[in-house]
């Protein structure tokens, strides 16, 4: 029973984390200072295909998951849920105008900075649940594990790469893009430090663990049946 309660608590914590992530992302978009690098990419895809920003996010997340597999980063159920749910929540927030759009520079700066910090808190919550990293954060953690470089540097390189591709696809670039490209890694690290959260210390349960569990379960059940016979 205690294990079930713990699993439910962690799952709810993960979903709340994804909500924070979606809110933070939309706040940076509605800051109206220029899209963040990943959203420049999402908008570029939107302009080419006509799909929503959220759906573009899901497509990009799918591609990143494939890259994570190549980097030998294990996938958790949280990885898959993140890939889908954050995109859906983005569309819900944006299409229903649930977060206001900044109408001046000062308000835009405040929304941009607060949005990045809220996104960082979202990362703490869902990564701490132990159901696996999200697609982009999984890539960030995998690269950190392989290189030993800081999260700020790694996230910065990822953001700039997404920006370049998105720009050539027609995405909108502004001063907010620059702030996000070089500041998001810092705000994620700041949130980690404030919450005293060490992503490397989290013991994640991956999809492969559940597959192995069920294999062993049915194998033992089969052996028990053979003993009875």
Report a brief summary of the structure.
The chain is mainly alpha-helical.
Summarize the structure in words:
The chain starts with a helix and ends with a helix. By secondary structure, it is mainly alpha-helical. The protein has one domain (2-228). Helix 3 (53-70) packs parallel to helix 6 (135-147) and helix 5 (105-128) crosses helix 8 (175-194). The chain contains nine helices and no strands. 77% of the residues lie in helices and 0% in strands. The mean pLDDT is 86. It is globular, with a radius of gyration of 19 Å. The chain crosses the membrane at residues 12-33, 45-71, 80-99, 105-129, 150-169, 175-195. It holds the Pfam family DUF6198. This is YitT family protein. It comes from Romboutsia faecis. InterPro entries: YczE/YyaS-like (IPR038750).
Tags for this entry?
single chain, mainly alpha, transmembrane, YczE/YyaS-like, globular, transmembrane helix
Topology (SSEs and partners):
Elements: H1 2-30, H2 37-49, H3 53-70, H4 77-95, H5 105-128, H6 135-147, H7 151-168, H8 175-194, H9 207-228
Helix pairs in contact: 1-4, 1-5, 2-3, 2-7, 3-4, 3-6, 5-8, 6-7, 7-8
| Spatial shape | globular
Taken as a percent bin, the fraction of beta residues is under 5%
Tally the structural domains. 1
Number of extended strands = 0
First-last Cα distance: 33 Å
Helix and strand succession?
A: HHHHHHHHH
Query: What is the makeup of the main sheet?
Result: none
Relative helix content: over 70%
Computed over alpha carbons, the radius of gyration is 19 Å
With helices defined by DSSP (H or I, 4 residues minimum), what is the helix count? 9
- Mean pLDDT comes to 86
């Amino acid at each position: 029973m205690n294990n079930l309660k713990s699993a439910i608590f962690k799952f709810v914590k993960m979903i709340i984390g994804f909500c924070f992530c979606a809110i933070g992302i939309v706040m940076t978009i509605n800051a109206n200072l220029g899209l963040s690098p990943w959203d420049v990419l999402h908008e570029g895809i939107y302009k080419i295909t006509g799909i929503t920003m959220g759906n573009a996010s899901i497509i990009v997340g799918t591609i990143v998951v494939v890259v994570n597999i190549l980097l030998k980063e294990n996938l958790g159920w949280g990885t898959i849920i993140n890939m889908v749910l954050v995109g859906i929540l983005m569309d819900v927030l944006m299409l229903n105008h649930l977060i206001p759009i900044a109408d001046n520079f000062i308000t835009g700066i405040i929304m941009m900075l607060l949005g990045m910090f809220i996104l960082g808190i979202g990362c703490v919550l869902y990564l701490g649940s132990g159901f696996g990293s999200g697609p982009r954060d999984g890539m960030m953690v995998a690269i950190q594990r392989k290189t030993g470089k800081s999260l700020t540097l790694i996230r910065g390189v990822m953001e700039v790469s997404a920006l370049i591709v998105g720009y050539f696809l027609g995405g909108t670039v502004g001063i907010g893009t620059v702030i996000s490209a070089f500041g998001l890694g810092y705000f994620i690290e700041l949130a980690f430090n404030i919450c005293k959260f060490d992503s490397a210390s989290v013991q994640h349960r991956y999809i492969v663990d559940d597959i192995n569990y069920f294999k062993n379960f049915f194998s033992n059940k089969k052996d028990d049946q053979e003993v009875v016979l």
